[in-house]
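Aim 2, interim progress: modelling of the N-carbamoyl-L-aspartate-bound target.
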Amino acid sequence: MRHLMSPLDFSVAELDELLNLADDIEKNPPKYAHACDGKKLATCFYEPSTRTRLSFEAAMLNLGGSVLGFSSADSSSAAKGESVSDTIRVISCYADICAMRHPKEGAPLVAAEKSGIPVINAGDGGHQHPTQTLTDLLTIRSLTGSLGDMTIGLCGDLKFGRTVHSLIDALIRYPNIRFVLISPEELRIPSYIREDILRANQIPFEEVERLEDAMPELDILYMTRVQRERFFNEEDYVRLKDFYILTKDKMKLAKENMLVLHPLPRVNEISVEVDSDPRAAYFRQAQYGVYVRMALILTLLEITVSE
Ligand code: NCD
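Predicted structure of the complex, ligand included:
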């Protein structure tokens, strides 16, 4: 049985296969409409979510399956003190596959060890968010035609932003990738990523504070929200929350074909006036999240659909 905890759980060849499947799903939805008839997805969300939970549910419904679950710790037995290990043992009796989000780093991994069904990490604290990364890879590949040869700017909360951590893990395996890490001093990328992932693999990167300086060289700009819920005090959050605001004026500095991605939700970091710019791809990105989660559910349940 296979789980998904980090993007590294799939080889590049397996990722290619998964993205090809997502492509086919996008082109031929009816072909997959009954692929998961009789199967159930449990969504166990101990932290707020809109896109991840609902796109998982939409994905399973599009495949003909059903969904059950909870959307906050308060409405589950976690509120009575139940451990994730016990919860997953029980969920394994009710469902065929589980997507789990938890505020504690590593909680989905602990669950996977006791689970009778595949567990998907749908975000664990400030650590990893592999299905957002699958979404990001599919978006980049679909809109640019490839996953190599690019300079990608990651901007905002690089310290607590789990989407950024997973995306770096995944992208370093493609050829000729360069990162520009754009953040205020306090929200710089954690040192284990700078040293053990980027430097150890000799991946070119630079760390800058001003978005304007980085803008002209970027092929992709990946904006992120300052992760309020992971701050120790509100004062620091208030000071940093509006550090970056992408505006129409700043977009004038960018390449004509640069893409702006954002895992969403956005707070203030992208001005709504940018939404109508053809380079703004974040709402298309949310749509790709459904196709890629359909492909992931099929892959982990080992269901193949023939012509
Ligand atoms: C992200 C997350 O939960 O980490 N959201 C998402 O799943 N699309 C990003 C965020 O919350 O800022």
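The chain has two domains: 7-128+288-300, 130-286. Residues 282-300 form the longest helix (19 residues).
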